[in-house]
Write the structure tokens for this entry.
Amino acid sequence: MAGPYTVAAICGSLRRDSWNRKLMRAAIARAPAALAIAEVPIGDLPLFNEDLERDPWPDAVLAAGAAVRAADAVLVVSPEYNASIPGPLKNALDWLSRETSAGPAPMSGKPVAIIGATPGLLGTARAQSQLRQALQNLSLPVLPGPNVFVTQADTRFDDRGTLTDAMTVKMLETLLERFVTWIERNTVGG
């Protein structure tokens, strides 16, 4: 394993103590030594509007773009709202897929992995399917598996927000290990 590879984590839930934020923290804590995962906040991004694609670009767009552009890969952590992708996440993807005054589209060519959690029984399967479609449309290499659809999230974390379910921990660790190989395979020189 080479690395460490920097990974920009984008959490589709803006709620401070959401299940997906807890899952993102678990990924950060359980990342193998070859991955350095850090969150790129998206809560301050304005609604995507082509009228804003001019100098001066919104500061939040430039900051998020710089963080993603500097990363080797992207980890998307998504809830499922109304059987779909949450609005803030779609908004972030729209901004991060656009060329800015600071350079090429921040997500351009970045290997991507997707994980998600929900208290329901489908574990974000529908949102992740839609995310894959959107990301592949951007010609981004999306890790094909294993899928991490955390179901019944309220039973998978303790009162402090620590991921405690052994099977979920194993699935997350397996995805993160495979993500290292995926990054190596899908980056320049890989």
Observations:
- The chain has one domain: 5-185.
